[in-house]
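Hi C.,

You asked whether I'd gotten around to modeling the 112-residue construct. I have! Everything is below, sequence then structure, no commentary in between.
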Amino acid sequence: MTEIVRKKKCYMKNMGSMMKQMMEMRSKAKAIEKELSSLEVSGISKNKLVTCIVDGKFTIKSLDISNELIEKKDKELIEKSIKEALSSAINDAQKEAAAKLSGAGLNLPGLM
């Protein structure tokens, strides 16, 4: 067997192995994506008057603003409370997503 043929066989073997790894990673990623869709994380404002729930894909599922906060009619306080609850929920969802991804060997920068 010539050297070129031997190298070509080795290359093809490596390509097959790489394709198999890619398919496994893709399968893991799809399973995790499904898991993240069903994950729900809540965030609560510091004054405990706003609660926000997001899923593992950072989509807002619900936002609850207490009547007490609405009755105060303080626009800045309402905005601040919503921002705190949203930030808390998104940060926790990012941590959960990063943990699930790294547990599956799929570390993505920007999630931790």
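If it helps when you're writing up: The CA atoms of residues 41 and 54 lie 5 Å apart.

Thanks,
B.
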